[in-house]
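Archive record
______________

***
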Amino acid sequence: MISTKIIKGIAFCAAIILIINCSTTSKSVRVDVEADPFEKLSDYHFFTGIQNNLQPNAGVLPYDLITPLFTDYAEKSRFVWMPDGTSAAYNSKEVVDFPEGAVLIKNFYYNHDAADLSKGRRIIETRLLMKRPDKWDAISYVWNDEQTEAFLEVAGDVKKVEWKDKLGTERSVNYVVPNKNQCKGCHEYKGELMPIGPKVRNLNYTFAYEDGAKNQLDKWAEVGYLTEYDNSIEHPKVAKWDDASSGSLHDRAMSYLEINCGHCHRKEGPGSVSGLFLMIEEDNPLNMGICKTPVSAGKGSGGNTYDIVPGNPDKSILVYRMETNDPGARMPEVGRSVMHEEGVALIREWITAMEGGCQKSMDEK
């Protein structure tokens, strides 16, 4: 027989555990746009339960992009949170218009074995983009080796990462956590820091939510995170860069170039002086780099003359800068230290399929 004291003791312990668990899971998200960033990621309460499970708290909505930015083969887990009673406004061309207090939460991680996800993952950093009253603010948190917490990092960091890819190949990279200035280098739009990915055309697809699959735009509207949206009409949608069924070779190439290069190489971006514009809507061949000589490339030209030579990726500066790992020549400048093999293969295929070459222009020189 179990004594009454033991039974009461067990009941008391169970009650304490229940109280602790309830207090952990019932904490609401804490965001103060007027205050300095928290020292620990967990202080925001974006996630409940075990922190590295990335289980979203109430109001923290997961999302994904049709074509995402490449970052040294890191996987990404994205979430958005907005204060009660606020929402983003639909914008058909640029990033949706987020309200003050909105936070975009992006976690960068590597699966230990991409062919066997049961072996777990290592989260490297969590980046927040917070909409303060007068501007967006980029805030980075680096996870400890124990994977129990992420801590504020302003100056940047470098982490050696090793993993196995889906083919069982051992891979490694020196993953760079950018400092605040480097964040603005990619996220600059008209001189201000802005998000890159959450545009209507890059959100417009079905996501597997816990309560069922649904188009992300419909879901955002359903939970009150998107206004001025009409689900009865057709909305813009980019091609998925690595899915041939999602669009033409040109559409997939431009989708890839926009998310990886277009944030700088556009009329409103820091790369505008180059005259190379890589947004999806660009239809001027010269602006896209076809038979265009660079304004200033230096060793970044790789000894080539034109940004893109139709039919000849090996003579195209664009391909050279995507392939090289030389810090003084590679593109993008921030966010990669190794070549994105699959992305480069797509751009090579796209250029190879072009007709005409630049022979006439070369003869005139």
About this structure: Residues 4-25 form the longest helix (22 residues). Residues 1-25, 361-365 have pLDDT under 50 and may be disordered. Helices lie at 4-25, 180-187, 200-203, 216-222, 249-262, 317-323, 341-352, 359-364.
